[in-house]
Amino acid sequence: MRAFRFGALAVLLLAGRCWAADATAPIAEGVVFEERYGVLAIEAEHFASQSKTDTRAWHRTTTEDSADAHASAGRDVDPSHAAGASGGAYLEILPDTRANHDEKLIPGENFSPTPGEHAVLTYKTYFNTPGRYYVWARAYSTGPEDNGIHFGLDGQWPATGQRWQTVAKNKWHWESKQRTEEEHTGVPFLLYLDIEQPGEHELMVSMREDGFELDKIVLTTQREEARPDGVGPDPVVRAGKAPAAYPFRKPQQSAVAAQKAFPAHWGEPPAVQTRDLQPLPGGYGQGSGTLAEWIQENLDNDRAAVTLTIEANEFPTQGAGYYLDRGQWMAINPETNKEATAETAFAFPNGLYDVTLQAVGESDGQSTYLVLVNDEPIGDFRCPLSQETFEEAPKYAVTWKNVPVNSGDVVKVSSAIASADGKEYSRARWARLVFKPANEATVAAVAAIAPKKAEAAAPAKRVNKGPRGERGDGSVSVSGEPKQWHKVTLTLDGPFANEADSAPNPHTDIRFDAVFTHESGGPSYRVPGYFAADGDAGNTSAQAGTKWRVHFAPDKVGKWNYQLEMARGPGAALDGGGKAMPRFDGKKGQIEIAASDKSGRDFRGQGRLNYVGGPYLKFAGSGKPFVKAGADAPETLLAYTDFDDTTAHKGSVPLKTWKAHEQDYRTGDPSWKDGKGKGLIGALNYLASKGLNAFSFLPYNAGGDGDNVWPFASREDKLHYDCSKLDQWGVVFDHGTAQGLFLHFKLQENEMDDDRRGHDADSSGAGVAESLDGGKLGPERKLYCRQMIARFGHNLALNWNIGEENTQSTQEIKDMASYLDKTDPYKHPVVIHTFPNQQDKVYKPLLGDASKLAGASLQNSWNDVHHLTKKWVDASREAGKPWVVANDEQGPASDGVPSDPGYEGKDGVVRQGKSSYNLDDIRKHTLWGNLMAGGAGVEYYFGYKQPQNDLVCEDYRSRDKSWDYCRIALEFFGRDDIPLTEMTCLDELVGNPKHDNSRYCFAKPGELYLVYLPKSEQAKLDLSGQSGEFSVRWFNPRTGGELVQGAVDSVKGGGEVSLGQPPKQSSEDWLAVVRKK
């Protein structure tokens, strides 16, 4: 995603201005502005023409004008705002006869709802890139009636260009919103123009409200995160010569430190302050940067404290007619009551509040609610029906504004049940009352008692009470290897924080990003960053410090420019926004990137593994497709004694030492804390030495089968992350990348992916405390996704798996997948895993463009792999978006892939009643079954009965022989003469139209046919419609090696042919390779 952050417009001091004295006349008639890389920038005053000026006209104002420069233009209620304007000039529609609501609105004079009727500007432009361009304008509004204009193109005024709107006041501000009937303050992303053909176009701007002040226009193809900074990007001129800029002047500064008194509960301002002068937040005039940060911190704390909540479970139930449902909702039992009333005393300061009732949507009926204060109704509410059995959501809430409530007042909530069908009744559930101060006096009163309230409430989240350190000096250091595809790290010495802080929370309330742009103009990446404590937490176990970090994996050689963004505000890291932190925001630099020096297994020699719209991922560097084979088990891989603050919650699932693999650790391999981590690092070395290229793990399993892995600073606190533990995880994952191991992030598991226990996403359940936002895309889930991406997304080969045996609703899955896709700058593939019998239910609604998913992670019986892989390869292709389909868990759940014969005295055979299977059957019908169906590979699951099973495994050698079989298959499909991406499963050519396990065919018709025979026998191949001669050779899936000749040397096309017998061991599996000569 391309992001735009620019410095101030370079001021061109050209001699000999000969511009028109008429401030309404054009000064850039011959200038054509050019779009490059999806961005077009235009200075507003550089219009080519102006028309329809009989009643209103655009007047140019500059930094060189006198105070009465526009006296002849008619009424202008505003002083000059040229200071701060790009290029030292801007345009204003004059006269301005309606500055507020009290002044008369006169359509056709001071208001023009129809575009193109008054004060029409035109600009000559040239677009290289067709597409949808979102329109941003830099405007200055001082009242409620000077904040809207219209945009048009090539003589037309499309609906999407009308009613540009801003609500920002008393400053130059970038905005791109459209006013609608429902939302008068404007809706993002609705204001755009579609450029259908490259070439010259005429951009038009016309009046909607007089008094409008316009400084600059930017059109960009980027939809998200596109707001320009400062004065925005410099215009590019294609033809003509742009007029010289006027002198740029900063807005007038004042020496007054503060124009109003600080609230008493803030205490005293900093005793020692810097000597810089800048506007202070909150309307406190001008002052130092130190004072600005102190004010902003207090404002943020006040905002965080001002919302008061009385949860339903804080109301007494005795005699109320309610019962407490799931420990959190008031509810009525329809068999005993039809209505109920609960009451409690208001224990907060006197004031004026906006009061919100959060009801619970139900599918049985539309319950009704009444809220009262001292028996006086403040409002009633009829709750909409829900599609779910019950759910909390904003649409089930109602707010009554400006309600006076005093301390000690009796607050009551009454509700009544209802029925949609006359049979089943709702339970009139409700969750809470929220009181938000509605004026400054109430805000101050509530903020003053907030510390006491927080302490009394004993919040579950961590509250840091440790000593505070000094903030950093704002310097930026670059570390890592500045080479293509390698990890390059920027570390900012920024604001002091502790991982346990809550006001602000460094993980949620401070957004730290870096925008990297190649010197050629593209690509550009916005990479999320994170709080890194002291910068060495993996070794020091530090929880606090001033280090903020971004990891980047550049995909091009050459110079990369970077710019840091740091903003602060409630939830700023989760949804963007926040107020820029001046001392740290905007830091710039450049990194010179050389070519990678890696080769062999190391992914840094091949590039990032991308989803390219086909059934195989491809390396961006080498262009080669990727087929995987590796370990799905243990899911508890990260439950390791050498990781900080890692504990086991189940006696049957202890932490791992990975001692069996300490022998595989090599000198020079990474570790932490003077040698910790050798066992797990050695385990990855072993997997790589066996020729495998993937492993899997759960980063979060609290409440699940293992209950011993979480990234948080404490198990129950999902909004504070453990800096040292995650640094240590990062060492392991980086080593995996260097060893050529694909990282399979299974982000959650069935037991805690939502608020519903068990297999069924539609069951009610009793709630799951460990789930992230109950399955919804809320702050916990957003933060979790962002942290995984920020810390580990630089790794080149990985996927984000929504969850193991996932049972979230379709919408919840779509929302999570979209957030991952939006936040991940590299667009790593997103996949999903579910129960074998729920694949149709889960996968079908997600196919094609219905979701951001790029693949399926299949779980099914070991002997169902082939036909189910083919089913989803075909279904996804037919939906228009081919999925990457892997088999990542093999049933039965009890055994999965058995251990080798002889390991811990086992014979390697799994017996199921009268049937049985062993690792040879896994090789034939799981490994080759997936690959011959066009699948992307396998990961092996170890069951829960086997030695070294899925929960306790810490010795990968338990499946040593199976790993050999995997390596052999990978080596074969990695051959340069196998056109993998051009081949499809064509079992019908070998007499297997049902795609059972008798024989498989994978082919590029007319050129290459692979025929797999689980039990070697004479096979026939249908070459009807083909001509010429084909060689027949055989490959041994058990031993690998070169292709060998069997009983038949070659066959001719034109009909069904016999391939003969393989060369030896005819009772075993063989692969026939039939190639056009």
TrEMBL record:
It comes from the Bacteria. It holds the Pfam family GH115_C. Keywords: Signal. Residues 782-940 form the Apiosidase-like catalytic domain. Residues 53-63, 753-762 have a biased composition (Basic and acidic residues). Residues 483-565 form the DUF5060 domain. Gene3D superfamilies: 2.60.120.1620, Glycosidases, Immunoglobulins. Residues 53-82, 456-484, 753-773, 886-910, 1054-1077 are annotated as: Disordered. Residues 104-233 form the Gylcosyl hydrolase 115 C-terminal domain. Transmembrane segments: none annotated. The keyword Signal applies. Residues 989-1074 form the Putative collagen-binding domain. Residues 1-20 form the signal peptide. This is DUF5060 domain-containing protein.
